[in-house]
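Attaching the record inline, Q. Sequence:
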Amino acid sequence: MSKSTSPSLKKRGGGFKGKRRDKRKSETIATITPVQVGEIDKRVYVRTLGGNRKVRLLHAKTGNMFDSVKKTTSKVTLIKVIKNESNRSYARRNIITKGSVIETSDGNGIVVNRPGQSGQVSLIKLEK
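Structure, as predicted:
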């Protein structure tokens, strides 16, 4: 059974309210799929409310790094996750989230977007 954000069928005291309507697809809760550093860039397209599409990134090999000193953006290859503030084990498992520090082919960078929501990895180069 899928998780849903639809209104509860229970009363405050525990009794049954009765079924008012069916579940809606827009009320289902998406399962969390962590983005990992991988061999290829793997994306999944998900249909959202109104017929729009959302890109979910599953594995990332490349990212877009912005250098604030030179004011340039370049495409870099991701090597491994050095540090992840959201969870200590994410760094060991190479899981990318917003705020994680990643070692790239052009130096270290910090992730400034949510790659599972936007379908790409955007980084800002860290100064040494």
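The beta strands are 35-37, 42-47, 53-60, 62-67, 72-83, 95-96, 101-104, 107-111, 122-125. The chain has one domain: 35-125.

More tomorrow.
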